[in-house]
């Protein structure tokens, strides 16, 4: 295993739980070179720092740090191999502009020894009339007939020559073919202001374009598509259902893969690109949304689709991979989840992550030729021998009798009776919890808490009826389900009613606060991390951005905006409140927590509030998370008492 070189040394004997579980992932991203000889790994460095390492796995040579981000407001998101000796990485940064937070992405390319770093993202001109936030996306890692060349999107903005006269009116999203060694580029698709995204096939040819529409400068939310025949340049209307979302194109079959809806559930279809738009249903479930593609290799070959029931499942199109996944699940301890992360160009070497509820995951290398499976890297250092609680699937009745699916994690070796307990609603709201390792749930289980994670109505993944109008417009049902989770824990004698609390992040933090509005005192302590606290503010903060109408439509209008806002109902909150928020949170403005604190003060109440400078929604900093866990545990102990 290649552990010691890429991450700080851990001694679990010398670390307590808040340090172990608060630590960032030891491996943030990993990819394999086209020839299968090298890995590129993003690992945490110092505070809010990421380092890209390259290691030759054939020679087991010393790792080489080739790129480093030490900007506390920046983050290296992913790295992938453009050639056998050039790596492309995406850097995301956040800046404050005229009082508003804006995110920027940039693509950087570097040699596998750290030399010849260059920027693939084109800088805006000196006289550009607006900023460029999107630094481009790689839509094809190979272009037939052009060595060392990728296709990447590029955003254009108009430019003026003297501040008044426009000399370049190019505007919108285009596509460039870029040689990653010389950085020379050619125009593959001219910029179009209406273009939202492009999809290339596996030969490196742009075949689909998503077209967006505006009204009064704001996005309307409806998207149409154009397609291109194989070997032709003209764009044609793609006559597909309004809810269809194309995601990939296979040049060999001349078909697009698209997600659409069947009987209220997201499903995967294939659609011919020959002018007939022949549609075939590929994967459909009557109890779960099919929500993602499984793709591997340099050509991003589509090999399956996945969905989650009680745990994540894959419907494979590739029988060899299906058999391999089944064999690995049997061979590795605990019937783990198997994730195919990357592969060499010929797909003979596969990077695989195996993980489960009590195991944060191990990166493996599987060689098809030798049938050898080799451990490479744990996703979290220091946890190999840590005893954790088993996560099991349960359901409980809501007030109207609806059975709500959930996951229950008990403390290790617990009898599951009369415990201090936490309800931990997920964020989103367009999300869901799944079976697998959850660092928060496991941390609290090790502190002696039973942890229940409900997939309340309003969660994604269970079809349109379950999703309802979304967790904000249908907040009464969603938050009611969350409160019923706490009642169930007490009724089942799992929880001591006097030691029941709620902890949530993002929408989960909103649900935690709002649960004390609708069921005051049910939870004896409320912890909200980066919560939404005012639905009206959620809309007003989007004003001036192109997505304002979409946010406005998502949140909705009417009495639910006021009734469903914790900050507007602070007088109903009776339980002690602890809030955390990052100053540079783009997802949910820090003003939501500040408003909540002020609202509680206005009605003669108080809240414990911790604001983290220079951090975003995810508080992805080891020391910060360690502090947050320790502070939360102290707060819960103070208000629930010792176990």
Automatic annotation (TrEMBL):
Gene Ontology molecular-function annotations: serine-type endopeptidase activity
Domain Peptidase S9 prolyl oligopeptidase catalytic per the UniProt entry, residue ranges: 435-642
Hydrolase keyword on record: yes
InterPro entries cross-referenced by the UniProt entry: AB_hydrolase_fold, Peptidase_S9_cat
Domain of life: Bacteria
GO biological process terms on file: proteolysis
Organism: Pontixanthobacter aestiaquae
Keywords: Hydrolase
Protein name: Alpha/beta fold hydrolase
């Amino acid at each position: 295993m290649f552990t010691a070189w890429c991450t700080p040394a851990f001694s679990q004997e010398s670390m307590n739980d808040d340090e172990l579980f608060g630590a960032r992932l030891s491996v943030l991203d990993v990819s394999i070179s086209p020839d299968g000889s090298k890995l590129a790994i993003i690992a945490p460095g110092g505070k809010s720092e990421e380092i890209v390492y390259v290691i030759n796995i054939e020679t087991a040579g010393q790792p080489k740090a080739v790129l480093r981000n030490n900007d506390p407001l920046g983050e290296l998101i992913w790295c992938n191999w453009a050639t056998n000796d050039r790596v492309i990485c995406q850097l995301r940064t956040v800046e404050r502009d005229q009082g508003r937070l804006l995110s920027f992405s940039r693509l950087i390319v570097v040699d596998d020894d750290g030399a010849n770093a260059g920027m693939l993202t084109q800088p805006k001109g000196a006289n550009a009339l607006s900023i460029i936030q999107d630094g481009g996306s790689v839509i094809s890692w190979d272009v037939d007939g052009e060595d060392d060349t990728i296709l990447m999107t590029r955003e254009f903005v108009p430019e003026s020559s003297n501040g008044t006269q426009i000399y370049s009116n190019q505007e919108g999203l285009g596509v460039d073919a870029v040689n990653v060694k010389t950085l020379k580029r050619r125009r593959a698709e001219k910029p179009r202001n209406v273009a939202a995204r492009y999809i290339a096939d596996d030969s490196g040819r742009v075949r689909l374009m998503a077209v967006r529409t505006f009204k009064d400068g704001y996005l309307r939310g409806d998207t149409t598509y154009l397609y291109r025949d194989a070997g032709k340049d003209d764009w044609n209307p793609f006559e597909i259902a309004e809810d269809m979302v194309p995601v990939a194109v296979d040049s060999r079959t001349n078909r697009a893969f698209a997600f659409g809806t069947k009987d209220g559930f997201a499903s995967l279809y294939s659609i011919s690109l020959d002018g007939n738009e022949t549609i075939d249903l590929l994967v459909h479930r009557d109890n779960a949304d099919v929500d993602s593609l499984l793709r591997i290799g340099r050509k991003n070959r589509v090999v399956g689709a996945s969905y989650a029931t009680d745990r994540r499942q894959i419907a494979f199109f590739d029988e060899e991979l299906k058999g391999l996944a089944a064999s690995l699940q049997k061979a590795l301890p605990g019937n783990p989840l198997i994730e195919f992360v990357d592969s060499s160009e010929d797909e003979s070497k596969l990077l695989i992550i195996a993980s489960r509820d009590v195991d944060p995951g191990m990166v493996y290398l599987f060689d098809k030729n030798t049938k050898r499976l080799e451990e490479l890297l744990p996703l979290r250092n220091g946890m190999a021998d840590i005893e954790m609680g088993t996560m099991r699937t349960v359901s409980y009745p809501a007030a109207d009798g609806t059975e709500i699916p959930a996951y229950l994690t008990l403390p290790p070796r617990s009898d599951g009776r009369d415990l201090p307990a936490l309800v931990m609603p997920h964020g989103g709201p367009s999300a869901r919890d799944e079976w697998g390792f959850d660092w928060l749930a496991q941390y609290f289980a090790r502190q002696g808490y039973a942890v229940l994670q409900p997939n309340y109505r309003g969660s994604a993944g269970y079809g349109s009826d379950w999703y309802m109008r979304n967790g904000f417009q249908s907040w009464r049902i969603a938050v009611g389900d969350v409160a019923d989770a706490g009642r169930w824990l007490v009724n089942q004698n799992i929880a001591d009613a006097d030691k029941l609390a709620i902890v949530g992040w993002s929408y989960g933090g909103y649900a935690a606060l709002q649960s004390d509005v609708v069921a005051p005192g049910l939870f004896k302590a409320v912890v909200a991390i980066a919560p939404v606290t005012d639905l009206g503010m959620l809309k007003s903060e989007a004003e001036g951005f192109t997505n304002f109408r979409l946010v406005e439509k998502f949140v909705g209008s009417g009495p639910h905006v006021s009734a469903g806002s914790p900050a507007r109902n602070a007088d109903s909150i009776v339980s002690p409140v602890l809030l955390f928020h990052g100053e540079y949170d783009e997802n949910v403005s820090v003003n939501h927590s500040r408003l909540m604190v002020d609202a509680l003060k206005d009605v003669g109440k108080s809240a414990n509030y911790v604001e983290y400078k220079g951090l975003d929604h995810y508080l992805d900093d080891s020391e910060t998370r360690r502090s947050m866990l320790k502070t939360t545990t102290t707060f819960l102990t103070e208000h629930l008492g010792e176990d």
